[in-house]
Specification:
3 helices; 35% helix; 5 strands; Heat Shock Protein 90; 24% strand; 139 residues; five-stranded antiparallel sheet; alpha+beta
């Protein structure tokens, strides 16, 4: 399953427009619906949080005009990918205690680790991905 959408032009590190913020919610809803359709209700919360964080990062930090998010179930793994138009990989930041930003990739890494998976970027950095193990009871 793959979904592409246009995002508002802007520089990296900008705030999301109202329209772009709705795109993040749409991506979460599509991911949740697809997981439920596949009988993977037990992955919905973690996977939708990952989708939300990766899509938000692509919108805010890529400076591109299009974002594509995809999910695939293969060999007992759920793979989530978010592709933007700009090369250059993301970095995990350490947010100050009061900071409202800077925890997204830390959350992605923590969830992936807790689910027996991993996350990373392609060699160019335009695609950020996460792999979650599908629990045996859901296979």
């Amino acid at each position: 399953m793959s979904v592409s959408f246009e995002v508002s032009p802007g520089g990296t590190g900008r705030s999301a427009t109202e329209c772009d913020a709705r795109r993040v919610g749409m991506a979460r809803r599509v991911a949740a619906a697809r997981l439920r359709f596949c009988g993977l209700e037990g992955l919905v919360d973690d996977a939708t949080l990952i989708v939300s964080e990766l899509v938000t990062n692509a919108i805010l930090h890529s400076g591109g005009h299009q974002v594509t998010f995809s999910m695939a179930l293969r060999d007992d793994w759920l793979r989530i990918c978010v592709h933007d138009e700009m090369p250059g990989g993301p970095s995990v930041r350490t947010a100050d205690g009061d900071a409202e930003r800077g925890r997204g990739l830390f959350l992605v890494a923590s969830i992936a680790e807790a689910r027996g998976g991993e996350w990373g970027t392609d060699h160019a950095g335009a695609t950020t991905w996460c792999r979650l193990a599908v629990p045996e009871g859901l296979r």
